[in-house]
Amino acid sequence: HYNVEQFKAQQVARGYAPATVNIHLACLKKLLQCAMEWGVIDDNPAKGVKKLKDHAQKWAFLDFDEAEVFLRATPERWRPMFKVTMHTGMRLGEARALRWRDVDWENQIINIRHTLYKGELHPPKSKESVRTVNLTADALETLQALRRKAESLESVCVLSSRNGPPVQPKNVHDAIATANRAAGFDKRIRYHALRPTFGTQL
Q1: Which one of 31, 46, 56, 96 has the minimum C-beta count within 10 Å?
Q2: What pLDDT shows up at residue 83?
């Protein structure tokens, strides 16, 4: 516990912003949790270490434990989308633009090639945004389940609405607000807050 607190203090001393330090702590906590589960260490020294307060941050990200709470509180209809987002780091436009042809089942990756804006496909935000993302076991399992449903709808969209077309941003934001209230968080969560969770899953 003392060493983790020392690590946090060193991060602050190096000039990292509170939000960045909190992301580093979340990653460290997850790594130590895995080490404990694998029998490498007896307990998780990061347990109980509090995150830094970030008064400048209006919107918050979810750490690993909070992500689990959030998903349990999410309406079942939206859970797959939010889980895939958390495990891939996709922007909302990228998630809405994702087509089944972008999923490489054999290599267990997705190819992010487009973003959806005002109902039309466009290149992603920047050249660096055209990328390949490895799928975690959870993301792969979720996509496989979505694929089975999509076949019955004959939908080309991975994250589609009930009748096939891409989900609408307003409906996504409403679902996040509903899950946030159900989870009982004392901070505001929006779609963009799900993306940094990708870092805490690594």
Answers
A1: 56
A2: 92
Q: Which residue intervals of 89-168 are DSSP H helices?
A: 92-97, 137-153
How many CB atoms are closer than 10 A to CB 94? 24
Instruction: Work out whether strand 131-134 and strand 120-122 pair parallel, antiparallel, or are unpaired.
Output: unpaired
pLDDT digits 0-9 by tens, 120-156: 888 877 777 889 999 989 999 999 988 887 765 556 7
> What digits encode the pLDDT tens for the residues 25-51?
888 988 898 888 899 999 999 988 888
What digits encode the pLDDT tens for the residues 174-191? 999 999 999 998 777 888
Burial class, 58, CB count within 10 angstroms (exposed 0-12 / middle 13-18 / buried 19+)? exposed
pLDDT tens figures, 100-114: 999 999 999 999 999
- Cα separation of 26 and 32, whole Å? 10
Q: What is the pTM of this model?
A: 0.66
Q: Letter for the amino acid at 100? A: W
Nearest 5°: phi and psi at 132?
A: -115, 135
Q: At 103, which amino acid appears?
A: V
The strand ranges marked E within the chain are 103-104, 109-112, 115-117, 120-122, 131-134
Token output for 159: 């994250």
CB-CB neighbours of 66 under 10 Å: 19
Give Rg (Cα) of the chain. 18
Strand partners, 133: 110
